[in-house]
Every structure is written in C-alpha cells, then in structure tokens.
Amino acid sequence: MNSEEIKKITELIENKEPDKVKELLNDLHPADIAELCNELNAENARFVYLLLDNETAADVLVEMDEDARKEFLDILPSETIAKRFVDYMDSDDAVDIIREMDEDKQEEVLSHIEDIEQAGDIVDLLKYDEDTAGGLMGTEMVIVKENWSMPECLREMRIQAEEMDEIYYVYVVDDDERLRGVFPLKKMITSPSVSKVKHVMKKDPVSVHVDTPVEEVVQIIEKYDLVAVPVVDSIGRLVGRITVDDVMDEVREQAERDYQLASGLSQDVESDDNVFRQTTARLPWLLIGMLGGIGNSMILGNFDTTFAAHPEMALYIPLIGGTGGNVGTQSSALVVQGLANSSLDSANTFKQVGKEAVVALINASIISLLVYIYNFVRFGASATVSYSVSISLFAVVMFASIFGTLVPMTLEKLKIDPAIATGPFISITNDIIGMMLYMGITVLLS
C-alpha cells in the first residue's frame, strides 16, 4: 500500500466511518491489510480487526510485523485472542503467535481454546526449540493408512480435506503411525482400481526429524524441490509437516540476522526501533573498534623514530589497513556463504585454507608488484618505502586471506554463528596485525 492509501484509511478510521473502511478492506489481500495495521496505533488496528471476518483477521495477524503485533495483542483480552484468532489459525502460525507472549498469558490463551485437540497440538509444539523442525512444523495434514482400499482412502481424504486450506501432499502411515510413504494424487485418476494404498504409494519419502535444525530443513527442501516436508519423531512416527512458505520466512529472518552480524550489529533491530535499542545494538562493536584504534595508535607510537627517518611511510597506513580488511572480509564472506549452503564443510578446513592461500598468493603478488612500480617511479629503487610497502602488503594480503578463511570455519566447529566473522571482527583484527607487520618489516629493512 502506498502512503496516500494508508492516509486515506487512517482518516476514515479517525472519523469513525466503518462502512467506508470495510469497503476498502474488502478489496485488499491480508498481507496488505497487515501492512496497513503495521502503520496504525494499537487502537486503530483494533478498529480495523473488528471489521474483518475471523479467518481474514487471523491471516492478517500472522502477516503483521512482530513488534506491531505484540503491541496490538497487549491490549486484547486472552479470550478474544483465542476465539477470534487462534481458533482460525494453522497450528504452526498459532504457535508463533503464542510463543511471543509471556507464560501467564500463554496459559490464559490456551485455556480459552475450545478445541481441546488443537490446544493439545499447540502445547506439544511449544515444547520444541523454535530453531528446530519441531518448532517450525504444523500438524494439519491429510493422512491415510497403507492398508486402506482405494475407495476408503478417497473417502477419508475428502473428510480430512474439508478442514484444510491447502493440500500439498497426502502422507501414508502404518497402524503405528510411522511414516511409510507419500500417496501420489495422480494415482487416484490413473489407478482407481488398485486394491491397497501401499501398492501405489511412493515409498521412503524425504523427511526430517523433530530435532533437525531449521537451516538443514531449508537445505533439504531446496535440494529436493519440495513444497512441504514431513516431520517424524525418534521412532519414525509422523508428527507434522513444514511448508515452503514457513521456510521462506525463516530464510529471510536468518539472512537479516547474518547481514546485521556482518555489519557489526549485536542484536536484531529494525529501522523503526527506538533510539535506546538501536544504540545498544550498535555500541558494542563500536567500542571494540575504538579499542582496536587505540591499539593501532599504540603500535604506531612505538615507531616514531622510523617515521621521523622515513615520513613517507605514513602515507601508506590507510592502504595497508584497508587492503587487509577488504581481503579478510572477502575470504570470510565466501566461507560463510559456502557453510550456509552446504557447499563447504568445516571438516575440510585445511583444504579450503590451502586453496585460499593459492588465491591469496596470486592476488598479493599482483597488488604488491603494482605498488612497487608506483613507488619505484615516485621515490626510486633505493628508497626504503619502495620495497617495504610492497613486502608488507604482500604479507598482509596473505595473512588476511588465511585468517579470514580460518576464523569462520573454526567458529562453525564451535557452533558459533560464522557470520560474525564477516564484519568488524575481521577488519579490526586485520588492521592491528597489518600495522604490526608493516612496522616490523619496515624496521627490519631500514
């Protein structure tokens, strides 16, 4: 929605004209209504929700930004949340909403859910870690038994389908609820006379365990081009399914977290967050950067006699620091990307370091040679700066490349998000080490 449409609807809300507002809302997708509600205060958002039917209201709530949604839900009684929203949501969406509440309100909302089976499913899902398949899955599925006849199978599918918005796959289980296969809908048309479901099902479908990390679920769905993946427990019983739209939301959130880590933000923030939250997210790495800068100044302060003898050396401090930071960030970014899409394994650390060392050798040789030619023309072959800067630059590029490769792979082994290695951490470290190499080499060659 553009700003003019939002302004128009806001004015109608403030003027208490529900019929006109409702007329405008009827033409909007739930995602567009959610965008509108994100821009409204909690009371005006409540005005909008009262005009929506229950199913649309539930869809809109799911699409809202977390902060705006939390502010809105804080003003609603638990009974209204349960009967107006949760009752009309898929279990995975309901869990996402309830998980944002404190424990007391969670219990209140759950106590007002009339469907005991739905409430039980939500309670069970809340037990799983939100970063695992169990925390992401929903329980709405069409399930058939492997020994059912085709007429019985079709009859049960019609009954189950009435309570679902979308059907991605039909899952086949045995009498102990263990996943056995996927029933191809095409077989209903091409093989209607087959006696048993197990004779036409696709056996051994791709599945994930309830404890499988979300990142691995994303990779599996991408690798096998699935629109949904079944989730099984420790003994192979079918307990839920994860759809591609849930995965896409998780991919976007993970990408945002990694980008912020790489940018030096210590926590998840949005552009519309308050000043205090934005300050606390940015300040830690800025303080670390400040300490790094002070460390650099202390290193350079110990070489005042060197600068007095060769003042032109000071001209290349930005070049050494900037090149080291850029090279380190490039190397770490490639490694983090490889780890994220599973094209790179932390078990192959030494192989990757060796490959990066060869690339670094080529880049370092070209860069240092170009700088040497420049200094040769400007200062002459006998000047200390002509060869000390080139040798230092070569050493810095080699170190930064290997360090930028080694750090994220080490962090991955330690189960720490390697995205942190693509940000200020690498730049600050390379800056300090680069200055030490530069000054040390210059002193040795003077």
UniProtKB/TrEMBL annotation:
Segments crossing the lipid bilayer: 283-303, 357-375, 387-407, 419-441
Matches recorded under CDD domains: CBS_pair_Mg_transporter
GO cellular component: plasma membrane
Keyword Repeat: no
Record's bilayer topology term: Multi-pass membrane protein
Keyword Transport among record annotations: yes
Residue ranges of every copy of the CBS domain listed in the record: 201-257
Localisation: Cell membrane; Membrane
Source organism, top-level taxon: Bacteria
Protein name as catalogued: Magnesium transporter MgtE
Organism of derivation: Candidatus Phocaeicola faecigallinarum
